[in-house]
Fold:
Amino acid sequence: MEHKFVYTFGDRKAEGNSSMKNLLGGKGANLAEMSNKQIPVPPGFTITTEVCTYFTEKGPVATRELINDAVRAAVAQVEGIMGSRFGDVENPCLFSVRSGARKSMPGMMDTVLNLGLNDEVVEGLARKSNNPRFAWDSYRRFIQMYGGVVLRVGPEHDYDRDPFEQILEAVKEEHHAEFDTQLGVEELQEVVARYKKLVEKQTGRPFPSDPWEQLWGSVNAVFSSWNNERAILYRQLNHIPSNWGTAVNVQAMVYGNMGDSSATGVCFTRNSSTGANEFNGEYLLNAQGEDVVAGVRTPQQIVKQHSLEWAEFAGITEEERLQRFASLEELMPVAFAELVKVETLLERHYRNMQDIEFTIQEGKLWILQTRDGKRTGHAMIKIALDMLNEHMIDEREALMRIEPEKIDELLHPEFNKKALKNATRIAKGLAASPGAAIGQIVFTAADAEGWKAEGKKTILVRTETSPEDLKGMNAAEGILTSQGGMTSHAAIVARGMGKCCIVGASHLRINYMDRTMVVGENVYREGDWISLNGSTGEILEGKVALSATLDNKSYEPILKIADKYTRMSVRTNADTPHDARVAREFGAKGIGLCRTEHMFFEGDRIKAVREMILAKDEAGRQKALEKILPMQRSDFEGIFEAMAGLPVTIRLLDPPLHEFLPHEPEAQADMAHEMGVSVEEVKRKVVSLAEINPMLGHRGCRLGNTYPEITRMQTRAIIEAALNLKERGIEAKPEIMVPLVGHINEFKMQEKIIRKTAASVFVERGDTINFLVGTMIEVPRAALTADEIAKHAEFFSFGTNDLTQMGFGFSRDDIAKFLPVYIAKNLLEEDPFQVLDQRGIGKLMEMGTKFGRSSRPSLKVGLCGEHGGEPSSVEFCHNIGLDYVSCSPYRVLTARVAAAQAAVKSLMI
Amino acid sequence: MEHKFVYTFGDRKAEGNSSMKNLLGGKGANLAEMSNKQIPVPPGFTITTEVCTYFTEKGPVATRELINDAVRAAVAQVEGIMGSRFGDVENPCLFSVRSGARKSMPGMMDTVLNLGLNDEVVEGLARKSNNPRFAWDSYRRFIQMYGGVVLRVGPEHDYDRDPFEQILEAVKEEHHAEFDTQLGVEELQEVVARYKKLVEKQTGRPFPSDPWEQLWGSVNAVFSSWNNERAILYRQLNHIPSNWGTAVNVQAMVYGNMGDSSATGVCFTRNSSTGANEFNGEYLLNAQGEDVVAGVRTPQQIVKQHSLEWAEFAGITEEERLQRFASLEELMPVAFAELVKVETLLERHYRNMQDIEFTIQEGKLWILQTRDGKRTGHAMIKIALDMLNEHMIDEREALMRIEPEKIDELLHPEFNKKALKNATRIAKGLAASPGAAIGQIVFTAADAEGWKAEGKKTILVRTETSPEDLKGMNAAEGILTSQGGMTSHAAIVARGMGKCCIVGASHLRINYMDRTMVVGENVYREGDWISLNGSTGEILEGKVALSATLDNKSYEPILKIADKYTRMSVRTNADTPHDARVAREFGAKGIGLCRTEHMFFEGDRIKAVREMILAKDEAGRQKALEKILPMQRSDFEGIFEAMAGLPVTIRLLDPPLHEFLPHEPEAQADMAHEMGVSVEEVKRKVVSLAEINPMLGHRGCRLGNTYPEITRMQTRAIIEAALNLKERGIEAKPEIMVPLVGHINEFKMQEKIIRKTAASVFVERGDTINFLVGTMIEVPRAALTADEIAKHAEFFSFGTNDLTQMGFGFSRDDIAKFLPVYIAKNLLEEDPFQVLDQRGIGKLMEMGTKFGRSSRPSLKVGLCGEHGGEPSSVEFCHNIGLDYVSCSPYRVLTARVAAAQAAVKSLMI
Structure:
């Protein structure tokens, strides 16, 4: 192979550049680009993602053979730039080893720092830096990280804490030290000794002292970590293919912990929570980068103004602030000024808000990393629009910058203002990720998962979070930590998930043993209800009422742009006038699915419905249906009015009749009493209607074709409602949809009943309206014979829920027994009920659309399953030429943006 | 329209010919052809099937307008030939009006005879024929038929007898007449008077006296009858499309009831029960045709030899025979000789066994109709082979003459010879349709249907049957009548259905009121069990044991021909060595589907299976599976041995695990006791495994992918069994089939487990065998993504049962709630689980095959659903290029013939 597998960077030049993201990973490409752009990054080299794939297939030995020479040459080049040598006792060069995939996966990939230290080199480093404490602290950190990440030294039982942390805590306790920084050289040497003993005990071998062995071990660990459980989960959550692989970045270490003229921090070019164009960030004096992210210590603000605000909020005196929490702007004005220059440069260059990691080593600024910053939905929109106004990006790019899924966050309910006023405040923390969350306190990620499985809503309360907590964070309604800042793990991950999060609520004392959270004299226990206001950082007692109003319209300008490009329209699935109005406010262009069965359950209707079911013959059913007719008619009037002038697709009765009967003995007795029949008769009917596979049973148009009187009643209600509105000068545009058609004859029979009934109503009323008759395409056979069906049907609407059920042979009700295993084992990348399976179910849709239009070119084709609000599915619908998608009201905005982005993407091809 | 709608025939020429079956119907085309061939058919004309379609769409008035002139002209032509005039009082010409569809539908379509009679014409006919009794008898028959068929005069309640019959019976009783023939003119006049009163009472109008009104009424009735319930049922049973329509044949009447020199009869050119090449038939003196078919009087044999045999069997003296049952050969030798000449001519002409209706009017032979005769499965084969030997037809035609469905009859069990000897004989009748039938006596067709619905087996016992009984005949196991001959309705229909039937068991007295059947002093009641031997005519008490042996190999020569042409091979679905051996004897070329779950239920295994299900972890399951392993291995050894040298496709465990657990509380308690666990634990497991839609749930490869240890055990059992046989010098060719694959990854994971397990076994044993790994294509998505799947799967087998369930969205377990309505309302022409839906499900198969072979040209593709034994489905499989079909052992012959016929048809295109 003549491939280049290792790319060097540093000293104001690099072999790679920013366009090589796929090969070098996001981090590697950025490091190269920054070097090219004169950004002060520590020198190093990147091992490509191709090597990761090679590693996965061939293993470590072959990989080392493949790249050994190139790595040695690159190390030599770094040594030249840094003026030090890897493994040298007098003047050692140390390295960091980090993963770097195409897409940023924060906290997911394992990292090793301070690589190259051993019992001799540590002394050299101590001498060279004149800081033995720093050297031994680096050494103990190195052994801890390398031991955990590469050698897999860890707790012997799940319930144990990390054994390195236990040793550290023990030593601290023995020496009455509160913070790590209070440990002296001797104590750190003791820690190192105990660490090495631990490693040898668990691995059976002494800790490796050869720097090259350390380097290769770390490279292997990074590549292996691509396939660890957390990484796989993250990829699933974020739709990242497993074959992308990660690159490895080996970089000379620079130190933020070389005394009080050193620091390390993270900064954002804009506010990642609000989107405001204000440079901001946090740093820790005399610390390494992971201290900031892990949230172990409360960080200091970079900008003075923020430091003042924070201190006021935290109730800290100016004196204390200056002593312990002064801003970088105040403490190191030169480095601060350079940082501001660099962040402006970087944002201009990447034309996006940047998330920058930096270290100041004895006054000198080093940029460790920059990447597009994660942001909340609100920030995402504001930043896109601001950059558009600043002429940094154009309209199309502003639109493409919107992650449709995140729009959802904008619609997250907020607390009712009145309820908020009356609520009891527990404490306040940093508003790390906005929204409102209500749940029961749990103290471990595992509990958050377990309780969710039982249907409970939880707030995950931790001192800090770590990548191990990812599943639990995903399961919780909200996250609360007592430590950490806006750039802590909890904050970053929660923002990425769009999940409400409060961090650094330092007044809370969290006790995992007792499972309590204590504030002053108040004790909150596991299971207690609390409410989080992620927009203000307030933590409240109990369940605070939510507000249903939506007054934030910050997204309107983006939607205006979207509407310029979009081809498909977006309708809504709505069964009530309320839902219809909400969706219309979000810009729905009609109703794509109005389910009529929900109307059958309400109030007195269920009684009439049950009368119909118990009826012995058509006449009896007819009588019961006549009672339902006026109620259905008034339902439709309400919905038509809410959607005046826009099409409303009404699906005829779909579920099997047994769904309307009670199954518990008591409820059956009640029903018998109410209906004036014997309990036995009710039971008999329940038994006679029971089905082995109700999903494939007597439902959909099979009902209307066996009991045409139901279709007649529903048609009459629809047509009469439309005529009533017409009299009031309101235009109703009903589209009557026949469900579950598999054979053209099923449709034809229903169509005949519908048209005949409508004709009768027209004659009775002496007036007419326009209406369409079409069908749901949700049975595979319907898609396969769509040419026949479209000869009669005026529109199609893909019911992708059922189409997925039948196409895959997956019962949605029973899938929990095997889908989690399938996802975990990577048999399926996505739950096909959430993300449309384009390869199989999508093929049916493509065929159905093509066949249908072959016999009726004007055929209107839409989608009305859950997928109508899922961006990748919406894009697929655009690509196969659908006229519209229909989704739940709160997904309409997401679908509108997704539809517009699909259109823009087609333009770009 | 310039179309010709009316075709005349008679007087040795005709406007139509035998090639015009679609237009003139079978009967009309034959009548035309016979005229052309100098066969003495009464003159007449045929109104085409196109007019029927026109009638169905436009109604009677438009139809009459369309054809009025042509009909008038044709009547005039017939009048010319017969020398009489329609409606003329002095010299009347009377007509018959009959339906005639493309395919013979005996007894299904309504017929009107003696049309043209009224109060004046009857006197003219009496004078002209010098036989007033005949004239009045014809008149009363005419009113009865016309009243029933055209004017729909019938019983007022379902339980009533036909009111015309009631009147006739009443008059006979009043005049002490036993037979119709004993009624004189006056009595018949009284019958006519009462008939007319009845008609006027029920219809509100006097009986129509205008012959033209009578003619048009009859034509309309024939066209209308195409869509009566019985006709629709018959079409469904016989797969006749409803848009074919029927023609109407109007023909001058000739009379078999003009005294003792007149007769009417039915004859066959060969024996329709055995196939023997012997002319045979039955006739009645001084009677009309419907008397023969209806079985009201016991008919006489045409051939003297048969008459002698019959008399001996019936225990009738030679004197009585000559007096009452003499043969036509003896009574009318001239007409007999002409009939023999004509039957030979007709069989030669049509190159097939003919079923000929004739009438002798005062010594002159008239041929009323000829058609290909219905025959039993045995006769079908013998006649085809005989005609081949006689060089009447060639090999291909002999093959095409076989109705594959009828081969089934050859395999009908016969009674165990020993049991037969010890059985108590009730009586003997005519062996009208062979086979053995065991059932409980019922006396009405409705009961036969009702009892069948309750899962009971019945013998329908009637004095005679009529077209109204068709559904009941179909529902019964066998049919027994006390009257009628080999050409009676019961005999013909039963032979067509391949149903065991005994007719003319004249010693039986059947009393519908008491619901008893009396023979001498023995009384048999409704519900009593009897056995019919349709091959000998013996009626036996109780349930006589059946023999499982199959020694009739009369079909072998046909199969030899079939094998010359066939391209697809036929395998069998077999789960046991016994079934495998049976199928192999029928020529199965391997096993296409060996279901392993049945093996899980047997004996002790279910206990181990339940242990596996209750196990808390993989280790526990593994332990239980180890107990099952040796049993499964020995199962496979048996099956491989039975199929030595032929491929055996083994499907891995398919059903959801809950199918192996008991659902009744008592059985659960037993299981808990047996397994040494608490009842609650068993119940918990049952509840935890319960599914809403088990059909779409945790089954198929979803089991093997969540519990890989099951797949490992089954693979090990298969491979070890094959190796064990190899040691014994027997070749096993396993093909391991993964069920319910919907996504390539599901298959890949199973394939990996299978290949890995096999490799381990090979290493352990130091020997290998060849095997394939393939999949069932039964999930629609699998067919749609077959190109992906075929990259890994070495064979496909379409599981059309599940493919139909998911493709249609029809749960087979629940379909009874709507399929009958769908069939009745003509929404579906066939039950798609019996006859493959070629348009939809077939399309999936076609795509699956095409896609699959696109990535693996050598892909072996088969079908293993119920459809594998259904002829039209087999033909479809041939047409889309399948390599084999697999069906149950007793359908192998049917499938082999169907496959060969499909190949011949392709050659003929």
